[in-house]
Amino acid sequence: MKELLLAISILSIQSGDAWENASKFQIENQWLGFEPANTEDVREAERRLHVNLPEDYKTFLQITNGFSAPNTVEPTFMKVDEIDYLNTIDPDLVKIWDVSNNETGNDLKKSLLIAGKGQEQYFLLVPVDIAKGKWKYWKFANWHPGEQEYKGLKDYFKDVLKFCEQESLNNSK
């Protein structure tokens, strides 16, 4: 996964999309990520949220504790101590979907917001069977009808890389 994140960072640097708000650490390291999360921070988040986070998300956190949006289409991944239930962060959105679509509304009620706080698009972890460690991975945006589901974080970041590559090609023409 680190290779994907590095490739996304490099394309973002070349395009200049994400560097207006970059930190000194990010600029010096040409990396949209941050210092890795420590194990205790991850455990504390799991205790606070009463869940065992998915392994691929924990791996992501061991690489980088958050990840800046590489463009205006993707959300910024939050630091582990900032993640929370969507129902806590954006209860109005959950209410709207709960009334209009029971299945999606039920999923949103129990989902964790891990990216996009205060942005137009979210990335959510939706527990399917916590005892078995099964989760759904959703990109959810107000400009996209419903959720866009991924098999895991790696698949999401592969999709982001493809988008960045396409944007890079379009900008070079």
Automatic annotation (TrEMBL):
Identification of the protein by name: Knr4/Smi1-like domain-containing protein
Occurrences of domain Knr4/Smi1-like (ranges): 36-159
UniProt organism field: Chryseobacterium hagamense
InterPro entries tied to this protein: Knr4/Smi1-like_dom, Knr4/Smi1-like_sf
Domain of life: Bacteria
